[in-house]
Amino acid sequence: MTMADLTLLDLQDLAEEVDLEAKAAQGQYGMGEVPKSFFETYSAMANTNGGTVFFGIGQNEDKKFSVIGIEDAAKVRKELWDGLNNREQINANILRDENVSVAHVEGKQVLRIDIPRADRRKRPIYVGQNPLTGTYRRNYEGDYHCDEETVRRMMSDAIEDTRDTVLLEGFTFKDLDAETFAAYRNEFKSTKPGHPWLALDDQELLRNLGGWTNDRRDNKEGLTFAGLLMFGKLRPILDAAPYYLVDYQEQSGLKGDPRWIDRMTTDGTWSGNLFDFYRRVYAKLTAELKVPFRLEGGAKRIDETAVHEALREAMVNALIHADYTGRVGILVIKWPDRFGFRNPGGLRMPPERALAGGISDCRNRNLQKMFQLIGAGEQAGSGLPKVLAAWKEQHWRTPQLAEHLNPDQTTLVLRMVSFLPRETLEALDRRIGPKFHSMSPTQRLALATVAIEGKVSHDRLKEISTEHPHDLSKELAALARDKFLDSSGATRAKIYYFPGEPPYPELGLQSTQTAGALNSSVHLPPSSVHLPPSSVHLASQNKLAETVRNKGKVPKATMEAAILAVCKGTFIALKALSEILDRSPETLRIHYLIRMVKDGRLELHYPESPNHPNQAYRSRE
């Protein structure tokens, strides 16, 4: 079988590997034509992470494919290129000849279009001639129209190599925290004791750091955005960036428990700027790390390991790549077995390229320079590879870098768990029995990932395995077919977990709230809407829940009334709802929740991603 010779099963597997869209593309006379909706999909995929479109393939509501074929593929291919090069149709053509090919599925001819992720300098890719009305992006369910704010953010990223050089009119040295700047100077002196900038006064030092600038054209000078963020007082920072938020939490790590043990956030009890946040939080992150005694060159004691350096790189990476005009805050979470980092703003390059390193496209280059001068942060895109190398050296699980939309944010999770812990393998041996030993290494890896992380997806397995993506799809499908794993979601949103044990949400890291909302309620963890079963007091108080618990089949109206009662006033995750009502998650989702969302009785916590793995439901008033 060649790459151009596929089966329907191959298409189902491919849908987990790439963002895949099937279009019948038959046209009025059945000879084939480019559907009008294609250009919306082209825009959406180019503005997200790319994807593949097939002309001549049908798809039903259950995401199952059917082969229709294209009678005249050459004609449709010409129409496609004509449309892509028509500036009244689409603003830019980012495809090459090799991106469009004729394939054969079940013996029928179809057209395959592989759409790459557009370079950020070419975004947004939009339909028609107005980016504010013609820009689309892609989620797990299909194409959606971007709002004006999202489009303008893309346009800013396209033309601005760095965001933090802008001169802030009306801001002066009085807006800086003097103790912070003095502490930075001391750190700079300790790191580079002979540096000539140390002899400069504070304003000249700040100018050389990129925190103070002159606008020679208008004869103005003042603080830059970088200078205010790094050294400013909280109130002036919020005046310049209303959604600014930095937040550190130490959490217990108990499943479903959103409470924190220790927290530091923008609550007015400290300066609130980035340098103070970095130095205080880094100390908290590394407090329990073991440091072996060693000397460098027989004289200087080294008090850091590669793990210390990796955590510093991960934290600085979040701070220098953040979009501080975005509606999400900086968040760092410490769990007993892992660390999480979140910054506002998406990646400026595909995740795999960011992890590979060698290319630096920093959103805030002055902040990057300020951190580099005190020995924090690497140049030329080597920060994330350094994190990967440190984790690999410890034989810990591969870090997870992910980009999320609505609102735009980037997350990095670092687990201090062995790649294949002995106790995990022993537990799987007890759970599955002799069949576990006869499984392929990839299948055992997938099951171990579920045991450690609660779930596995095709994308996650691809991060930790060297197998071909197509083979990974087959291995996951085999585990589901043999009932070792259950699954939910479709295409790239599909996740796998142990039967009857859908995963709890990863509490706290990915946000659906704005930083402004969090600043107004700093005593609540960002994830407080995801209430676990132990926190849901409605179940014991509401008699309607008791009418369905521990009972067999009940009338449809009774079950729906119980769902609405339990979900009243707060978002409830599917796992919690399943336990409260004593029904399987899939039964609730398929027979009740989908319909109740559609008819407006329930609302989704992730409305743009109905199959989101952390989905939760709330009754509409």
SSE arrangement:
Blueprint: E1 5-6, H1 8-17, E2 20-23, H2 38-46, E3 51-55, E4 57-59, E5 65-67, H3 73-84, E6 100-105, E7 108-115, H4 131-134, E8 136-139, E9 142-145, H5 148-159, H6 178-191, H7 202-209, E10 212-215, E11 220-223, H8 225-231, H9 234-240, E12 246-251, E13 260-265, H10 274-285, E14 295-296, E15 300-301, H11 306-320, E16 330-334, E17 338-344, H12 351-356, H13 365-372, H14 383-393, E18 400-404, E19 409-415, H15 422-432, H16 435-438, H17 441-453, E20 456-457, H18 458-464, H19 469-481, E21 486-488, E22 495-497, H20 515-519, H21 538-541, H22 543-546, H23 556-566, E23 572-573, H24 574-581, H25 585-598, E24 602-604, E25 616-619
Parallel strand pairs: 1-6, 2-3, 12-16
Antiparallel strand pairs: 3-7, 4-5, 6-7, 8-9, 10-11, 12-13, 14-15, 16-17, 17-19, 18-19, 20-22, 21-22, 23-25, 24-25
Helix pairs in contact: 1-19, 10-11, 11-14
Count of alpha/pi helices: 25
> First CA to last CA: what distance?
55 Å
Reading off the top of the CATH hierarchy, the class of the largest domain is best stated as: Alpha Beta
- What is the number of beta strands? 25
Give me the secondary-structure category: alpha+beta
User: What strand line-up does the widest sheet have?
Assistant: 13-12-16-17-19-18
Report the β-strand fraction as a percent range.
Answer: 15-25%
- Radius of gyration (CA) equals 26 Å
